[in-house]
Amino acid sequence: MHYTILDCYTDEASGLGVPPYLGTYPRYLYGKYKKGGHTVSYITIDDLRLYKLFNGVKRNPSEKEKTSILTYNTTTNDTQKTLAKTNVLVVVLGVHVPGKYLTALPGTLHEVIPLIKDLKVTKILTGPAVFGTQLEGGKAFEKEDLSLFQEVVNSDTSFDELEHFVLEAVPILNEIPDRRVIEIETGRGCNVGKCSFCTEPLKNRFVNRKKENVVKEVRAYYDAGARFFRLGKQADFYASEDPIWLLKEIRKHCPDIEVLHIDNVNPNSVVKPGGEEITKAIVEYCTPGNIAAFGVESFDPTVVKANLLNTMPGIAMKAIEIVNKYGAERGANGLPKFLPGINIIFGLLGETKESHKKNMEAFHQILDKGWMLRRINVRQVAVLPNTYLAANGGQKYFFKNKQYYWKWRNDIRQNVDNIMLERILPKGTILTDVFTEMYDGKTTFCRQYGTYPLVIGVQGRYPLKERVKVKVTGYMLRSITGEIVE
After folding, report:
1. Phi and psi at residue 335, to the nearest 5°
2. Which residues belong to CATH 3.80.30.20 in the chain?
3. What is the mean pLDDT of residues 391-410?
4. How far is residue 93's CA from residue 106's CA, in Å, rounded to a whole number?
5. In the chain, which segments carry CATH 2.40.50.140?
6. Are 209 and 163 in contact (CB under 8 A)?
7. Inter-residue contact 96 to 12 (CB < 8 Å)
8. Cis peptide before 267, with omega less than 30 degrees from 0?
């Protein structure tokens, strides 16, 4: 049998699979089918769009146009020939925490189903879409007719089963021409597991992956040429099995790793006994520009209680202080070594105008204390089926306060983000290992690889996918401007 994996990209609270990230779902499936004795191909939604919508021709943008992100992330495979030999098409799809993506656009059910309906193959749907999917916050999940698919399955396997085939997936790199950040899974579920909007407790009970197996997978991809990694497929890195040992071992066996970052962190774990030691280890063994993504969601205690959120404001503040204490030092690539990131969600249960006031009071307190936040993610809640939020009010507060959201978000962008950027990256700072990624007219947009990288706008059209150095020259609301230097 020939299996073809169609990666439409995934983004969920516990993990990211939108390029330049390579998520766990397509890799695990690739390894499982290979181990089972089948032949396997990997294609992306970009490949499918190029074949079905653009007759296989990529068009270079004029100086007045943007680079198309619809076909940016194609593989080395010929899509037409690949589909012709396919017996089973496995569609990996689903977004639970919608974001903005510089050089990729995840596929939706609404988009994908018409593109594959005429294919005479067995079709399987898997990924987060099994639990609902939506590219925009504040909207109900996509309600598409799934009768086209012979199977709609949750592809998660136990860690014990996973280890029998996970390393078989490494050759998938041969089908991807561009650099990828390999998202590595360290655990599943959530050790708190109550937040009203989150699907993670619905998908898995809390269980850690064995630390030795995490290192084995990193080493296998490293030996195959991968140099960018994020230990991100978990709800709280600090709750991983022996995180200090884990980081030491990866560094020991992968000395030339270029990016080693983490993602989600429960602020409560940072302030608990042992939290400071883990923080210091992250600073020592990971690469600069690293972020602890704190799922604070709201600094309003009323909202925290109504939505069963993990972190009260006082705990969040203490965790921000600790990470700044050890991680604020500037690293070799120009960025501070390790800083907090804050997630804020609009539309949660119990939200009022007072909620935004409390959020802004907290941010101004952070500014006044001289602390730094590497980024603030502000999004509108996506109400997904079977969550506590869906059963206890759903979109009630979202619709009630929607008229204020642009104003509230702009308040954060203008009066917090902009100041933070100037604090984190003073004018004249040199950023190394920056990659040119896309054009928008006569501007080239660039980023470093890593967790939540800053977008840098450079005047002029420079060759894409090149490594450059950039000097900071100015600031936008969430991005910076710069000039390429030798």
Report:
1. -100, 155
2. 180-424
3. 92
4. 8
5. 430-485
6. no
7. yes
8. no
What's the pLDDT tens digit per position in 192-250?
878 998 888 887 789 999 999 999 999 999 999 999 999 989 999 999 999 999 999 99
Tokens representing residue 277 in the block: 């030691």
Neighbouring residues of 48: CB distance < 8 A, sequence distance ≥ 6: 6, 79, 107, 112, 115, 116
Percent of the chain past pLDDT 70, that is, above it, reads 99
Placement of tokens 């603030």 in the chain: 376
Q: Which CATH superfamily is domain 180-424 in?
A: tm_1862 like domain (3.80.30.20)
* Region 175-188 average pLDDT: 96
Report the alpha-carbon distance of residue 156 to residue 197 in Å, rounded: 21
Structure tokens at 219: 């080493």
Q: Name the packing angle between helices 211-223 and 243-253 (round to 10°).
A: 20
Token pair of 401, please?
Answer: 């306060």
How far apart (Å, rounded) are the C-alpha atoms in residues 42 and 20?
16
pLDDT tens string 81-94: 999 999 999 999 99
SS3 467: strand
Q: How far is CA 389 from CA 133, 144, 392, 399, 403, in A?
A: 15, 22, 5, 14, 20
Q: In the predicted model, is pLDDT for residue 139 greater than 70?
A: no
Which numeric CATH code is attached to 430-485? 2.40.50.140
Joined tokens for residue 249 = 């071992």
Please report, for residues 19, 178, 345, 450, the alpha-carbon distance to residue 333 in angstroms, rounded to integers and kept in the order given. 22, 21, 31, 12
Q: What is the pTM of this model?
A: 0.94
